[in-house]
Amino acid sequence: MSHGVKRPATARKSENLNGTVRIPGDKSISHRSFMFGGLASGQTRITGLLEGEDVINTGRAMQAMGARVRKDGDTWIIDGVGNGALLAPEAPLDFGNAGTGCRLTMGLVGVYDFDSTFIGDASLTSRPMGRVLNPLREMGVQVKAAEGDRLPVTLRGPKTANPITYRVPMASAQVKSAVLLAGLNTPGITTVIEPVMTRDHTEKMLQGFGANLTVETDADGVRTIRLEGRGTLTGQTIDVPGDPSSTAFPLVAALLVPGSDVTILNVLMNPTRTGLILTLQEMGAHIDVLNTRLAGGEDVADLRVRSSELKGVTVPEDRAPSMIDEYPVLAVAAAFADGVTIMNGLEELRVKESDRLAAVASGLKLNGVDCDEGESSLLVRGRPGGKELGNPAGAAVTTFLDHRIAMSFLVMGLASEHPVTVDDATMIATSFPEFMDLMAGLGAQIDGNGPA
Ligand code: S3P
Predict the structure, then answer these.
(1) CA torsion 216→220→222→226, rounded to 10°?
(2) Which atom in ligand 1 lies closest to the alpha carbon of residue 32?
(3) Is 291 exposed, middle or buried (0-12, 13-18, 19+ CB in 10 A)?
(4) Which residues have a catalytic role annotated?
(5) What is the pLDDT of residues 101-156, one digit of tens each?
(6) How remote is the CA of residue 173 from the centroid of ligand 1, in Å?
């Protein structure tokens, strides 16, 4: 594991980035592939799985609850326990840095009539779990948690869980998913009302595994998701498409570094995930969406990205759920745009792997960017060409155990006049272990200069 020793890294102004790359598998789909494969009856075969630390922790948790998980060549093979038949984990389930792994598994196993305990790293331990624990309490789950509903958490389900109708109070796919997964081992219909649509991988994949799940969307876009509990799930074959959130880093780098021309293959283009591409196109980015196709029920495409002169925009607030993980790197793109970029509706950024709003604003300021951090907004005044951006003294951005803060600021340094240093690049392994090699292959100058 990467926790403990910090490893700083520095990115320097680079010559044009060029080449064709394939991005590792989508993190959201990879977590769910392990979970649903581990739960379903029979065998699930997964190719393209993201082998980042976060996902591997989910695989270990499923193993600890009875699933058999192995790898044969490029294929992960899971023999599931069958819906309703998870075993009590003998030790605490350690999710490391992963909110998705932890929160979804709380739903998956929390309603079982045995104890399950959840732990994680310092980042995950500081994140709010009440958003998942509250609906579980309504379903009859007993909860022991540290102050403020934080980890460590121990759950014990009732003899028979109570199906609920739950209106998700914040735009969160993790909360929606946790309730639905709890519904899998609950008799009757569990209903989730989602006023603002978030990524829909849980719904689509559960349907693919054979769950009786329906989605109704009303005229205002409010979604009602109904799941019949205690049905049979059957193992599937899954080819995980490339992660659009990881794609964002080489993509923005190619836009910012003059003379770049980069093609990124096999990117998931599910509309609940493509807000960044739309926003960058509105800023004037040359992004060609090529070879659009359907793969395993998901839209997939190749992206050709050429360096572009960006202009500042106001990002529509209702787009936030479809680009929630991409604001840090969008803020970096905005630092190089002509004019002002305004981002609103960012309250959820405060409870990610770090307080991303504060982390981004302080990293930008450290590197010469004029920006204003509001309660739930960020305004960035750009400097085309990156003149005077970066930190000539080598002062490091604090990454707060947050992989996306580390990658965003390393992208910034590729186009800034002065280098950009981050205090710790180790967390990149949670979601994008290939990041350094992939970026180097395109011509990016990034050195890890800390202890190995
Ligand atoms: C995820 C949902 C989002 C996102 C996270 C992955 C998921 O979290 O930020 O990286 O796979 O369901 P929230 O539900 O907290 O918005």
Answers:
(1) -20
(2) 11
(3) exposed
(4) 325
(5) 999 999 999 999 999 999 999 999 999 999 999 999 999 999 999 999 999 999 99
(6) 5
